[in-house]
Amino acid sequence: MPNIVGVRRDPIVTAKARELRVNQTSAEERLWSILRAKQLGGYKFRRQHAIGQYIADFVCLSARLVIEVDGATHGDERKAADAKRTAFIEELGYKVIRVGNTEIFENLDGVWEDIASELGLFAESDPSP
Question: What's 35's domain CATH number?
């Protein structure tokens, strides 16, 4: 298991995470609209959060859940890099869910239900913002 406890945050990674929060994609913005402010079962999510040398799109620290949004740039050439990133994050004890942009725009309710299921919640109410 990678040991990142007691390691200072890399200022370059922290600055990049801050930049990504300011310049989020429209899919990330839409997903954030249902994750922010503890709207999903009272779970607090963070966006563009540094985990080691990687930046997770969304993370719920208490549930050890990471949500990665895969856009058009996540084709075959990215699969190896994504697998390495996922393996690192999972070694730290997180569960990683990957969601595509198309799924967020065409089936936000389904994405909400998948996340709620991972959190052990029953998706009975309408998540539409």
Answer: 3.40.960.10
